[in-house]
Write a structure and sequence with these properties.
alpha/beta; six-stranded mixed beta sheet; eight-stranded parallel beta sheet; 721 residues
Length: 721
């Protein structure tokens, strides 16, 4: 359909039909599913009639080719003008084949891996009938207490932006209309949801516009530049106004300044939540403010359908605003080809062949292996073939390693640690004991664990958080392992056996009681369907760990937020003339995180040669070549992530002590040396000044290259103007 045809279609719609297009409802409201008619609890209070459902624009949380076809066909019979539904869901890190959580994918430092994971997730979801995924989440995160850090790719705006682009490319491809194996992506949560006070979900965000633009907006902008079709509003306030009613954020910045003309959707119930926020006295005012802010789709509240008709007729809302929103929704439906093919890629036969196929599981296994981060290794890993291994812990035989937002994934399908290690170790060399639950311990569990450990040469602990301890509404004030797991470590430590800790979790943890007690520690995150197989391949040396942290691990929760690209302060602790007391420091803990951004170990060693610069001065139209030689000095092939940071020595506003500007992942054979060259330009030196202009400063810059944000070599150059 041409755009003029869409305009003509809008002209044929009644006001009520147009407003119903702005409504998104859950599965039970629609005919054709097993849940049809099961409208209870909060859904019952929405006051949704059959007439509204027959004109609704989209459905949330529906999947399965047969059900999607049934729902869409039933809807098309009922809808007067034959306007199809948009089928949307949260496909965050896999559909049925579950990949590592995004924080783990960020730790791969491999955007191509993220793109592949999104492409596979889209293929499985599309053939199962879905049109739109609520991903990627690109919120910058600096507070590991927030449960949704697992859904971000970390604390750095540049790294997040690279992954944002990769996820959008993977989900959408380059021909969304013609490629039925792709989904429309929805970037979220606009804006700054990751900066909630106290790391508490749904909480207040308050920051300067300069900070917002410098650190929190780049990820969203990168997704928009990659052509993302939709944007989701955040639950939080921004500058005292809930994002869903923030006209300056949505209309002025997103629409006018950035030129976004796609669909803007609220998060679940966020329009009505203006009332408890204290910015709307009732649903009528909430509907008014959301529409004025430019929200096209209201998710799972009914303020629009119940109040916009009267607001239009009273002249308080211009009907042209409704028409614009409807046209944006219809345009997306057209782009997905739904007017010609309402069921799009839904195909029960292909679904059976494609979803959870061996090829997809192999890709998930490789992604999981590349996302794990080796945090410590006192010459214990990889395990030796002759060693007897005791696998102990609540995750030893648990399939709860998929993590939050693994919707159609099944714990029963997950490859467990036990299954993974049994496939790698000789028969009879593995014993398994639970040791404790995630948050409980019995005497029998401990007794069985001690017995298994006494008969073994090495103990492998499978520890962490269960999937309910992170994700949405999964904020934690204390981010250590649950006490029974720490007690288990202490009991096993008395046996004086070599001990490896494997961690399954969705956030950086306070690792005291783990990192200091175990001889080796592997951060596996929530690694997904093939997690046990990937971890076993790493522990036995079949795969060499190559992951690097994309979020700092705090020394203590008292440091939080702790992040590498912080400001120096006027009294830095490490200044040459620093006083003993009157500096910016804690009296009882270090300032530095326990493990820095970019950190990760390997089974081989990498030596960096001296860094060389092609020049020590550049103008705005010149570039600087930065070269460092990296040598694999060990006896195993391995991958190193070479990281480049800069520091503006004297800015118009205070600049961070380090900023990641480039990275390169290089594969080196034993003894191999490679020169790694980065090109740095004036554009990479720009930042938002006090007047919000995005420019660079003439003057001196430090350039730092190394294996993580802490361990770098520094050179200095000058930008002249």
């Amino acid at each position: 359909m041409a755009d003029q045809q869409l305009i003509s279609l809008v002209d044929q719609m009644t006001l009520e039909e147009k407003i119903a297009q702005l409504l998104q409802l859950a599965v039970p409201f629609f005919e054709g599913t097993q849940e049809s008619g099961q409208i209870t609890g909060p859904m019952e209070s929405l006051g949704i009639t059959d007439a509204i459902v027959s004109n609704a624009g989209s459905v949330l949380g529906l999947a399965g080719a047969e059900e999607v076809i049934a729902v869409q066909e039933a809807h098309m019979r009922k809808n007067r003008l034959g306007i199809p539904l948009l089928i949307m869901a949260d496909i965050v890190h896999g559909f049925k084949t579950i990949f590592p959580v995004p924080l783990a994918m960020g730790s791969s430092w491999d955007p191509s891996l993220a793109e592949q994971s999104a492409e596979i997730a889209a293929r499985e979801a599309a053939v199962s009938g879905l049109h739109v995924t609520f991903a990627p989440m690109v919120d910058l995160v600096r507070d590991p207490r927030w449960g949704r850090v697992m859904e971000s790719t970390g604390e750095d705006p540049y790294l997040n932006s690279e992954f944002a682009r990769a996820f959008v490319r993977g989900f959408q491809g380059d021909d969304l209309s013609g490629d039925l194996n792709r989904l429309a992506a929805c970037v979220k949560h606009f804006a700054a949801y990751g900066a909630g006070e106290g790391g508490r979900d749904y909480n207040t965000v308050d920051m300067s516009e300069r900070q917002l633009r410098e650190y929190y907006l780049p990820g969203y902008k990168a997704a928009l530049d990659e052509g993302v079709e939709m944007v989701m509003t955040a639950f939080n306030t921004v500058d005292g106004i809930p994002a869903t009613s923030n006209k300056r954020l949505m209309r002025d910045l997103l629409r006018s300044e950035w030129g976004f003309d796609g669909v803007l959707i609220s998060d679940w119930g966020a329009v009505k939540e203006m009332i408890p926020h204290g910015i709307a006295k009732d649903e009528e005012e909430a509907a008014l403010k959301a529409m004025e802010a430019g929200v096209d789709i209201e998710m799972m509240t009914s303020s629009y359908v119940h109040h916009l008709p009267a607001l239009v007729r009273e002249g308080r809302v211009d009907e042209s605003l409704i028409d614009e929103a409807v046209l944006r929704i219809l345009t997306l439906k057209k782009r997905l080809g739904l007017f010609e093919r309402p069921t799009r890629g839904a195909d029960p036969q292909a679904e059976r062949e494609i979803v959870f196929c061996d090829e997809h599981r192999q890709a998930a296994r490789e992604a999981a292996a590349k996302s794990c981060v080796l945090l410590k290794n006192e010459a214990l890993l990889p395990l030796q073939a002759e060693q007897r291994v005791a696998l102990i812990g609540p995750f030893a035989a648990s399939g709860d390693i998929l993590g939050p937002w693994s919707w159609t994934g099944s714990k029963e399908d997950a490859v467990t640690m036990e299954q993974g290690l049994r496939s790698k170790l000789p028969s009879g060399q593995l014993t398994v004991a639970e040791g404790c639950g995630v948050s409980t311990m019995t005497g029998r569990q401990l007794e069985e664990a001690m017995k298994a450990a006494m008969e073994a040469d090495v103990i492998v602990l499978a520890l962490g958080e269960d999937s309910e301890m992170s994700g949405e509404a999964g904020s934690r004030a204390l981010i250590t392992l649950p006490q029974p797991q720490l007690q288990l470590i202490q009991h096993l430590k008395t046996l004086q056996k070599p001990m490896v800790a494997v961690l399954f979790n969705g956030r950086p943890l306070d690792l005291h009681g783990v990192l200091d007690e175990a001889d080796a520690v592997l951060e596996a995150w929530f690694p997904g369907t093939e997690g046990g197989a990937a971890v076993a391949a790493l522990l036995t040396g079949e795969v060499n760990p190559s992951g690097r942290l994309s979020m700092s691990f705090p020394y203590s929760v008292g440091q939080v937020p702790v992040y590498y690209n912080h400001f120096n302060t006027g009294r830095p602790k490490d200044a040459p003339d620093a006083q003993e007391r009157y500096v910016s420091q804690y009296l009882d803990i270090p300032n530095e995180p326990l493990l820095p951004f970019g950190f990760g170990l390997s089974y081989t060693d990498f030596k960096y040669g001296d860094m060389t610069l092609s020049t020590d001065e550049i103008s705005p139209d010149e570039s600087l070549e930065v070269t460092v030689s990296v040598t694999n000095t060990g006896d195993r092939a391995g991958e190193e992530v070479v990281q480049l940071y800069i520091r503006d020595r004297s800015g118009e506003v205070v600049r961070p002590v380090k900023e990641l500007k480039a990275f390169r992942k290089v594969q080196l054979q034993p003894g191999e040396q490679q020169d790694v060259t980065f090109t740095l330009t004036e554009q990479q030196l720009r930042y938002h000044h006090s007047d919000l202009s995005f420019t660079s400063d003439a003057g001196e810059f430090d350039i730092m290259v190394g294996k993580n944000s802490r361990d770098t070599e520094t050179r200095r150059f000058r930008l002249r103007k």
